[in-house]
Amino acid sequence: xxxxxxxxxxxxxxxxxxxxxxxxxxxxxxxxxxxxxxxxxxxxxxxxxxxxxxxxxxxxxxxxxxxxxxxxxxxxxxxxxxxxxxxxxxxxxxxxxxxxxxxxxxxxxxxxxxxxxxxxxxxxxxxxxxxxxxxxxxxxxxxxxxxxxxxxxxxxxxxxxxxxxxxxxxxxxxxxxxxxxxxxxxxxxxxxxxxxxxxxxxxxxxxxxxxxxxxxxxxxxxxxxxxxxxxxxxxxxxxxxxxxxxxxxxxxxxxxxxxxxxxxxxxxxxxxxxxxxxxxxxxxxxxxxxxxxx
Length: 294
Hints:
The chain is α/β, with parallel strands linked by helices. The chain is built from 11 helices and 10 strands.
């Protein structure tokens, strides 16, 4: 399926289509089907600033990868439980990620819920997760608690996506310690840039002390509006700062995202022909092409 070219422009000669990031706009091939599944590559979607599109990206990237035949597990790692709600999962009276953190002997499969999207499963969260940091603070190797839980199910999936809470506390460190890679959703707004250096510093500390193999899989520009000079300038600054680490796919601003969330559906099912749905399908193809996902 061809990627959306919303926001594409041409060079002065008109020969080469250019994407919003200023690089030649290219399509990414449809991923080939897998002969077998697992072990999963774990990716944390992380930014300590709230409202930058982490949960929206986790839901829609997970659904897009599932659409291409990948077996996906989405882990709701935010006490607000927005990912669970966005996929229409009720979290009352069922095991959640909190139960796996506080009971190391519990089988993580007890907390896995099948979503309405084929190939997409979820480990939900609710407000109970807010007590997890207090519980973990006295645990031995507390930064590796999530990693130990997910290790038991990595063979069942091709990719595990962790939707992190907007902080750099112990839960986020757990997510980074468990992950092979990080995707940083970054709103195309000036103040969103300010905390990224701190996040990169945290990732570097985790790499040095806890997880030497973690990599930055990409910085994803979100809530982009090509009509505003501010969005274009912020995106230009992001590309200047991160270079090729900035993903070519850019996610535009649209009211379709909250509409889809209220319906408990990813946007590729709620409005499959919409440019935003096509953008997330393109993001899935780009991450496969980059080798971040099998």
